[in-house]
Amino acid sequence: NAGVMQNPRHLVRRRGQEARLRCSPMKGHSHVYWYRQLPEEGLKFMVYLQKENIIDESGMPKERFSAEFPKEGPSILRIQQVVRGDSAAYFCASSPPGLGGQGRYEKLFFGSGTQLSVL
Amino acid sequence: TQLLEQSPQFLSIQEGENLTVYCNSSSVFSSLQWYRQEPGEGPVLLVTVVTGGEVKKLKRLTFQFGDARKDSSLHITAAQPGDTGLYLCAGARDYKLSFGAGTTVTVRA
Lengths: 119, 109
What we know:
The complex is a heterodimer.
Chain A: E1 5-7, E2 10-13, E3 19-24, E4 31-38, E5 42-50, E6 53-56, E7 65-68, E8 75-79, E9 88-95, E10 109-110, E11 114-118
Chain B: E1 5-7, E2 10-14, E3 19-24, E4 31-37, E5 44-49, E6 55-58, E7 61-65, E8 71-76, E9 85-93, E10 96-99, E11 103-108
Parallel strand pairs in B: 2-11
Antiparallel strand pairs in B: 1-3, 3-8, 4-5, 4-9, 6-7, 7-8, 9-10, 9-11
């Protein structure tokens, strides 16, 4: 059973370009969460999605950032017009469905992350 | 500011010694999780504690959740070089996890 797959592992972009980060959840998992990690700051919640739905994007910057989890295919975190401050490790996690339709956050599985470097 | 404060930030000990990592908050959480993260990899869940005062043991690791569900500790007995890594605590409210900044543990052979 493959784990959470993220690609690319490393992504280098110049200021002003777009970054697309992909995440394929574990088989049977319908809930995806994106976190950002800066050195010595821990992981920060960005967005929580179910298939075709954004449940909570309160941790996402209002501009330039967007996320989707289509019916088919991986979840995508998209950053438009990247700036140096976007440089960070971006982690995706998935969980199985739980009672009431929410994800079982107590059973999160993280991918290996995408390290984004903005030049 | 971090919702969860971890201490110490760095810990270096000799193989065979014991260590304790603390995770404190002024907020109440429905559960608290401990993760371990290797360089270049994502966090891996070690344990989830749910009930105030709960104690869980995982081989040489002992996890405790405070009575008020605001703090937790991780104790490693007779540490080994394989225990080296970044240990993260995370408090859960609904589906959102708030992470501490982590404790980097180095166990010297």
